[in-house]
Amino acid sequence: ASPYDELSIDAIAKAADISKGLLYHYFKSKRAFYLAVVAYLTPYKDPAETLFSTLCQVQLFFVLLEESQN
Known about the structure:
The chain is 71% helix and 0% strand. By secondary structure, the chain is mostly helical. α1 packs across α4 and α3 (30-41) crosses α4. The longest helix is centred in the last third of the chain and has 23 residues, at 47-69.
């Protein structure tokens, strides 16, 4: 998996088959996109369980995104 710092908005847009401009239309930065993904994947549960689950899901998201680029 690519570390967060090594993954670009270009790569995310390419993997999603959308333009970088469209991604920036909805998210002002890569961090804003990342936080939206975390918020979307966060179920309403115990905070400790939710944090662990969310981190696992986000890691899986980035692994799948990287694999889709290869």
